Amino acid sequence: MHDDIEAVLLSEAAIHRRLDELARRITADYDDGQPLSVVALLNGSIPFLADLLRRIPLPLRVESLRVSSYQGRASRGTVRFHEPALPEVCGRRVLLVDDILDTGETLRAVQERFTAEAGASDLRTCVLLRKERQIPPRAQADYVAFSIPDRFVVGYGLDCDGLYRNLPYIGVLREERAP
Ligand code: 5GP
Ligand code: MG
């Protein structure tokens, strides 16, 4: 698995150090005694979510939503919701957590559905990675752990054809390993 990686972009230690900072900021921003609903966009956010949550000592609930927009390494441009219903968050503060903000189509589609249907009292977004692209993304994130160059990356939740999510770091996949 490690042999398929051309370069490590963010080491496990660098990710964890940055999560310490990000979690401190989120904790300070939400620290008023009201519970928070964290909604994880599956599957890519699983390791990020697990590591982030354990650093936030606030009353919170965890919900999830399975969405996809990528197949292999090419964005399909359409966002697919795998379940018909959104999590129950009416009247609650929501923090959406995703792995990466690339074109922003995914986050935008999810934000639009939450705004139209969920009745959350506050909606913010948190991503592990934001790609530095020439075209601005279609959605913004309130919390970003890292900005990265516009390369196709895998690991720490990010996949290629369902694989590599279990790498403990973020790396660039070797060209010949692409589907
Ligand atoms: P967007 O809708 O912002 O273009 O893309 C968001 C989704 O596409 C992410 O949640 C992620 O699943 C996938 N994605 C975008 N860029 C990458 C990348 O560099 N590597 C991988 N593995 N997935 C990506
Ligand atoms: Mg995703």
Low-pLDDT regions = none
Secondary structure: helix percent: 10-25%
How much of the sequence is in beta strands? Answer: 35-45%
**Ligand identities:** guanosine-5'-monophosphate, magnesium ion
The CATH topology: Rossmann fold
CATH class: Alpha Beta
Largest sheet: 6 strands, mixed
Principal-axes geometry comes out as globular
How many strand units? 9
The largest sheet has its strands arranged as 4-3-2-5-6-7
CATH architecture: 3-Layer(aba) Sandwich
- SSE pattern, N- to C-terminal: EHEHEEEHEEEE
What class, by secondary structure content? alpha/beta
- How many structural domains in the coordinates? 1
Cα Rg: 16 Å
pLDDT averaged residue by residue: 94
The count of helical stretches stands at 3
Report the end-to-end length measured between terminal Cα atoms.
15 Å
Sequence-ordered SSE layout with sheet pairings:
Blueprint: E1 5-10, H1 12-30, E2 36-42, H2 46-53, E3 60-71, E4 74-81, E5 93-101, H3 105-118, E6 122-131, E7 143-148, E8 153-154, E9 170-173
Parallel strand pairs: 2-3, 2-5, 5-6, 6-7
Antiparallel strand pairs: 1-9, 3-4, 8-9
The structure holds guanosine-5'-monophosphate and magnesium ion (MG).
Magnesium ion (MG) is lined by residues 41, 44, 98-99, 106.
